[in-house]
Amino acid sequence: MNPPRFHHLPVMAEEIVALFEHVPPGIVLDATLGGGGHAEQLLERWPQIGILGIDRDESALAAAQERLARFGDRFRAHHCRFDRLEIAMEAFDINSLSGAVFDLGVSSPQLDLAERGFSYRNDAALDMRMDQSQPWSAADVVNGYSAADLARVLHQFGDERFAKRIASAIVAARPIETTSQLAEVVVAAIPAAARRTGGHPAKRTFQAIRIEVNGELEALPVALDATIGRMRPGGRIAVLSYHSGEDRIVKDRLREAESGGCSCPPELPCVCDAVQTVRLVRGVPRQPSREERAANPRAASARLRVAERIADCFRLGHEVHLKPGDGDLDFADMFRRIEGKGFTGHYTNAFATLDDMLAARDYLVAQAAKVGVK
Predict the structure, then answer these.
(1) Residue 54 included in any domain
(2) Are 268 and 316 in contact (CB under 8 A)?
(3) What is the DSSP letter of 305?
(4) How many CA atoms lie within 13 A of 184 on its CB side?
(5) Could you report how far apart the first and last alpha carbons of the chain are, in Å?
(6) CA–CA gap between residue 273 and residue 105 (Å, rounded)
(7) Residue 25 and residue 53 in one domain
(8) Coil, helix or strand at residue 184
(9) 61-83 pLDDT, tens per residue?
(10) What's the CATH number where 155 sits?
(11) What is the spatial distance between Cα 266 and Cα 235, in angstroms, rounded to a whole number?
């Protein structure tokens, strides 16, 4: 059998697979399935999990379904954008998640297939649609936006410092029908001195237009919040981002979940009833190893952020109090059930730190297992 045409080398695969070793048995969401690289390694390594893979690119879905067919009903796929994950979960009667992986941005096959119109290195019609069933394409942005709107897109999504010059040049050169034409216009609009460094001069413009066409940054915070909301305690969310705009959103949404949106001064007790839902597994994002960056140059800009879902808890000053919730570990109930079976101790529902609460949870679960209480 020939390999699927849609083949994408998964970034930081070993690191990501290791993160899911201790998640609860159940379904892990691959929110950007692509060719199924991360999903395949997760399914191979951890038999206690299944994968719900979603992608807006039907070519990617078809390739992943072929690649992962050997896993049977442990793998399910659905065609949708990741901010519609609730629809995918409902389609397979999935109520909660044990984890999630987001590998953001554009994939290698999308860049390498000239007819997809993503790359300034290949000559093709302006397209850039990840979901080719949508009517809106790069041609509509390039030939339909005002100079002001184009400049906004280039600055906001591409951090392009020559956004106004490039936008004016695009408007003056219309109609622009191909990727090569667009790249030529962009290169000519950038001062010669600035073209000598920083890679291809059109790189930021193509990135910005792609993000606008596909609504990538608009969908991301919605998807992250929904995923965290559907995860079970102990589940983990791992997000790979490739440019500053993506990473800012990921950092913001994870920190919002960690703080519960608390607006109280840090030196005073919380009085706003903020509810913490995750703990950050590592505050500083991880990057690919030097060896991986050398082997896969497209991984060079990757940043990996990870958070773990916890039982909802109120943030009260320097104490953490459990918030009752369906499916969460009830400390008092667990304590009562094991107290008469050879276990003694002192019960509390307030802890000095979140780590103390998590340690107490793990300890109680271990003690309950020893005396046969579930």
Answers:
(1) yes
(2) no
(3) E
(4) 11
(5) 47
(6) 36
(7) yes
(8) helix
(9) 999 999 999 999 999 999 999 99
(10) 1.10.150.170
(11) 27
